[in-house]
Design a protein that fits this description.
The protein contains twelve helices and five strands. The chain is an alpha/beta fold. It has two domains: 181 residues, Protein-Tyrosine Phosphatase, Chain A (Alpha-Beta Complex), CATH 3.90.190.10; 106 residues, Four Helix Bundle (Hemerythrin (Met), subunit A). Helix 2 links the parallel strand 3 and strand 4. Helix 5 runs antiparallel to helix 6 and helix 11 packs antiparallel against helix 12.
């Protein structure tokens, strides 16, 4: 797994976020690392290959853009430059509806998991993309897996992409082939009829109701990303994120894991899940200690142990 791989622990419980369609075991996604066509870069960003507030940005079809969660004002400024009027989040974290409103944009929150997308959620996504003010920007956290899959399936449901082209888009967006459920749903999605979309409520939520476990995992996901920034800055506060205190970010991860171990919702999970959560909590604890003591020689190994504990859980509960 590359150092930029999404190790977000929200995914350990993402299968409970919404139901998934059945996974086809014979689905063989090809190498997703093909270079994207230049035409799929939003016009406003063609001359600016890097930007502070957005990542993995793609035009899916006319009026529909896929990418990462906007990062603070820089991200929303980028969206405003692109003319975006509606933002759809399929991530479990609470959307930043305040910043969206300040920039004149509407937020819609329709979370999905890594295991697949239910038909009912597909119809919601399709109707939102079809009916809400455009351009529509659809995102997950990093803009590589759930976001491209959700955008692709909405485009198929609306008849704007066929299944093959939708799957090819996911590959170009570097959606991991490990998420066979996402690929299978897009590969098999039908075109929805006007009658079927007419049954979907247009009362789209700004903030969806998700479980406490998922909310906590979403916050862990963000703290883990901060730890990667700290690692890349040489285990110090990154110059572009002066608010990040290394030991505090690691402690935040460990405290959340430890807190979850005592929650009733966690007790209803499997014994193996609780064990893996405990291993991750312990790994975060040792990283916190090393950061507090400024034990630089130990930090790479401590961080690798935390990453490995995440990966072990992903294999069982996400991938």
């Amino acid at each position: 797994m590359s150092k930029t791989a999404d190790l977000a622990l929200l995914a350990m419980v993402s299968a409970g976020l919404v139901g998934a369609c059945a996974v086809r075991t014979d689905h063989p996604p090809a190498d997703p690392l093909a270079t994207p066509p230049a035409a799929e870069t939003p016009k406003a960003l063609k001359s600016r290959r890097t930007h502070a507030g957005l990542h993995n940005v793609w035009i899916v079809t006319e009026g529909l853009i896929s990418g990462s969660q906007p990062d603070g004002d820089p991200g929303f400024n980028d969206l405003a430059e692109m003319g975006v009027r509606t933002i759809i989040s399929v991530d479990g974290a609470r959307p930043d509806i305040e910043r969206a409103s300040a920039h004149g944009m509407r937020y819609v929150h329709l979370p999905i998991g890594y295991g697949g997308i239910e038909p009912a959620r597909t119809r919601q996504l399709a109707r939102a993309v079809r009916d809400l003010p455009k351009p529509v920007y659809l995102h997950c956290h990093h803009g590589r897996h759930r976001g491209p899959a959700a955008a692709a399936i909405a485009a198929v449901a609306l008849g704007r992409l066929n299944n093959k082209d939708a799957v090819d888009f996911m590959k170009r967006a570097r959606t991991s082939p490990d998420y066979a459920g996402l690929y299978a749903c897009v590969e098999r999605a039908p075109v929805e009829t006007p009658a079927s979309l007419a049954t979907v409520s247009t009362d789209f939520p700004q903030i969806a109701t998700v479980s406490g476990l998922i909310r906590t995992m979403a916050s862990v996901d963000r703290a883990y990303d901060n730890l990667k920034r700290i690692r890349d800055a040489g285990w110090t506060t990154p110059p572009d994120h002066p608010d990040l205190i290394p030991a505090a970010e690691a402690r935040q991860v460990g405290d959340r894991f430890t807190g979850l171990l005592g929650e009733a919702e966690t007790q209803n999970k499997t014994e193996e899940f609780r064990y893996l959560l405990g291993v991750a909590a312990a790994s975060a604890g040792t990283l916190t200690q090393a950061l507090s003591a400024n034990s630089r020689d130990d930090l790479p190994d401590r961080f690798s142990a935390l990453a490995s504990s995440c990966k072990d859980c992903h294999i069982k509960y996400r991938d």
